[in-house]
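Hey, why these numbers?
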Amino acid sequence: MRPDTRLSRMLHVLIHMQHHEGTATSDAIATMLGTNPVVVRRTMAGLRDQGYVRSEKGHGGGWVLARPLEEITLLDIHKALGAPQLFAIGLAGDNPNCTVEEAVNVSLAEAMDEAATILLAKFGKVTLAELAAGAAKASKGKLAMEHF
């Protein structure tokens, strides 16, 4: 199963948008991410619907942040992306009458539910501004803006 990288990729895009003057086109974002502009528009539309970005039409149009990074958490973006599955681990269902399979599934489900609760709580505490500050500190204050 391929990992779902949309959260990481959109966090990357949003932080760059904060430091970019003007709009970021779907084409430019797609080039940065190595994907198709249609995928970018579809993904950004979900973020727009939740009020995190807005689109500007016409010549020079594109995407801009609609809210400051201090007001957006990892959890916000996770939810705006449709709350993708957090774990690739799945439960078996080959032998529904087997008590061993049932016990294994119950134990795994409990552990994954606990882990998801902890992870989502952490997502809710981390703002994109904090991520941006960490990136700026790591790059000694210079975030590369050549992406857009």
